[in-house]
C-alpha cells in the first residue's frame, strides 16, 4: 500500500519520533511540512497526518496544508502527541478532512514531553514521553491499518 506520512513536529521532535519509527519498519515516504510546505501527495493509497498539539489543535500549518494540498477523498490516519491527549484535539483537523471528503481510518495519540510556557520552570511535563512503548505502539497501530 503506497503510503506517505506528512508531519509537523516543532517543539521537541516528539511526533517526528513516532513517524520515523514507522518509516524504519515499513516503506512510508515521510514529509516534514515545515520544510516542504508545498509537497504534493498524488498517487498515495494511504496518508498519515501527524502533528504535535499546539493550543488544543493540530498545528495551524498542518490545517493549512490539508486544506491546500491534500488530495480530496484521501484515506488518512492521524497521529498526535501532546502533554495530555484529548479526543477534541482532533476536532479542527477532522473538520478540515471532512470538508475534503477524506476518510479517517484510524488515529493514535500519546504523550509528548512539554516545556511550553511556565512548565519549563519546573522541568516540563510528560517527561520521558513518548516512551519506547508509546513509539512501538505507533508502529503497531500502523501495522494494524495495513492489515485492514
Ligand atoms: C505552543 C505550544 C502549545 C501547546 N499546547 C498544548 C495543548 O493545548 N494541550 C496539550 O496537551 N499539550 C500542548 N502542548 C504540548 C505539546 O503538544 C507536546 O509537547 C507535543 O508532544 C509536541 O510535539 P512535537 O515535539 O512533535 O512538536 C503545547 C506545546 C507548545 C509548544
Describe the structure.
With 148 residues, the protein is of the alpha/beta class. The chain has one domain (3-147): Flavodoxin domain (Rossmann fold), CATH 3.40.50. It has helices spanning 14-25, 60-69, 91-99, 132-147, and strands at 3-8, 28-32, 46-54, 57-58, 75-82, 103-111. Strands 1, 2, 3, 4, 5 and 6 form a six-stranded mixed β-sheet that branches. β1 (3-8), α1 (14-25) and β2 form a beta-alpha-beta unit. α1 packs across α4 (132-147) and α2 (60-69) runs parallel beside α3. Flavin mononucleotide binds at residues 9-16, 52-56, 81-84, 112-114, 116. Flavin mononucleotide (FMN) binds next to α1, β3 and β5.
Short description:
This protein is of the alpha/beta class and 148 residues long. The chain is 32% helix and 26% strand. It has helices at residues 14-25, 60-69, 91-99, 132-147, and strands at residues 3-8, 28-32, 46-54, 57-58, 75-82, 103-111.
CATH topology: Rossmann fold
CATH hierarchy: architecture: 3-Layer(aba) Sandwich
Strand fraction equals: 25-35%
Radius of gyration: 14 Å
The count of helical stretches stands at: 4
Low-pLDDT stretches = none
What is the tally of beta strands? 6
N→C terminal distance: 11 Å
Give the ordered list of helices and strands. EHEEEHEHEH
Helical residue percent?
25-40%
Task: Summarize the helices and strands and which ones pair or pack.
Layout: E1 3-8, H1 14-25, E2 28-32, E3 46-54, E4 57-58, H2 60-69, E5 75-82, H3 91-99, E6 103-111, H4 132-147
Parallel strand pairs: 1-2, 1-3, 3-5, 5-6
Antiparallel strand pairs: 3-4
Helix pairs in contact: 1-4, 2-3
The structure holds flavin mononucleotide.
Amino acid at each position: 500500500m503506497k503510503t506517505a506520512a506528512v508531519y509537523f513536529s516543532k517543539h521537541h521532535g516528539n511526533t517526528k519520533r513516532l513517524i520515523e519509527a514507522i518509516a524504519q519498519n515499513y516503506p512510508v515516504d515521510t514529509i516534514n511540512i515545515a520544510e516542504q510546505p508545498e509537497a504534493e501527495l498524488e498517487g498515495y493509497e494511504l496518508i498519515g497526518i501527524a502533528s504535535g498539539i499546539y493550543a488544543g489543535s493540530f498545528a495551524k500549518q498542518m490545517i493549512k496544508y490539508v486544506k491546500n494540498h491534500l488530495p480530496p477523498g484521501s484515506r488518512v490516519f492521524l497521529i498526535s502527541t501532546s502533554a495530555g491527549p484529548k479526543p477534541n484535539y482532533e476536532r479542527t483537523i477532522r473538520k478540515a478532512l471532512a470538508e475534503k471528503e477524506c476518510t479517517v481510518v484510524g488515529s493514535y495519540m500519546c504523550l509528548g514531553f512539554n516545556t511550553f510556557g511556565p512548565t519549563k520552570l519546573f522541568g516540563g511535563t510528560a517527561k520521558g514521553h513518548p516512551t519506547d512503548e508509546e513509539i512501538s505502539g505507533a508502529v503497531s497501530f500502523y501495522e494494524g491499518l495495513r492489515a485492514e
